Protein: Glycosyltransferase family 2 protein
Amino acid sequence: MLYVILPVHNRKNVTEKLIRSLKEQTYQDFTLVLVDDGSTDGTSEMVTGYFGNVVVIRGKGNWWWGGSLHQGYKWLTKNKVSAEANILILNDDVVFEKDFLQIGIEKINENPDALILSQDYDSVTGELLDSGSNVDWEHLIFSNAKSPEEINILSTRGLFFKMRVFYEIGGFHPTLIPHYQSDYEFTHRAFRKGFRMLTFPELKLKEDTKQTGIRVRATGFKGFLQSHFSKRSNYYQLSWFAFILFVCPWRWKFKNLYKVSITHRYIGIPILHYLHVLREKYFLFRISRNSIKKSATAFSEYQLVPNQQSSKKTGRIEYFYHFTIIRGVHFARFIGWASDPLDPKIPAKIILVVKDKSEVLGTLKHFKIKRPDIAIAQDSEKLKKSGFIGYINTGVIDHLNGIEFYAISANGKEIQQIEIDRIQQESL
Structure:
């Protein structure tokens, strides 16, 4: 038996597309739990017109996403649904093929100890939007997982799992995390309890991205208040604090509580930026005075290539006007690898990309390769155990003349100019 939890709110036309997809499914042994949070456009009536076995839970418009899912959880537990029953959480802005439910049921029965996310594609462009995510707690960075092993957090858009997950970890936190972060908190809690996070290419749906998200549009002081103290906002302070408190490892908890605070965003970040600018000016002053050393190591076969995360590939605007430095590798997943030009005992902290000894075009930061096995499989000689990654703004580059690379030691005292054997530039 499958229980489909579907939160809705005043999107009758959008919801109807999903309902039609459900109606056409080859697998029909499911109960639809419709959580209607105060719709006034006849959404519930439309849905019940398609299905007879619909459980309608009505709210007053103040449940939001996390609260709506929690209402579904409460109904399931109140009715003592079997721990082996299958659960599916759906957004109303998706559609899928006729065998979607059948595939999902097969996958969750084969992997009863897992949460399985449907791979999410843009309904217009066909671009893969989500196939599992990874949260790096040390730096509080959320990114698409590069491999199944990296997945430690999931959205709830097309999420299959056994009812035992609800019984073992509980529901949601509608008061503290009413909307954004509610899905991440729930799935990461399950991950920490030992449940696996999985996706499968054959289990997929299509999302209408025009309907996704809620935008806070006010500006000025009113915009500031709405951005940080409105449940409609992704920056809602209470949700972020609760999210960090509930699931962040203790090692990074206090650091990340500060990171999500207003103090960090409006005071800490500007101060750090100002100090960064001053530091760059200091390095440029030394470079212009030739207070540097020549590195004994040269970077050979360097390339300036288009960033594979550009809007042409992902449909997003970040990094569109940037090139990425790479060395020796031509595959998107390996962007940013380079060998260390300084003494391995005193590795470089950063590499400055400078034009005409007067302008910093970019900063490449030191990092360690996480998958040396893949590196060795590609080219063990060219790929080292450490390197640098970063982006160069190409808006000011009309040619490569005058561009130089300078390695800065960890203590900031040593500056070495890196000799370049060869540089190529490929057009976008």
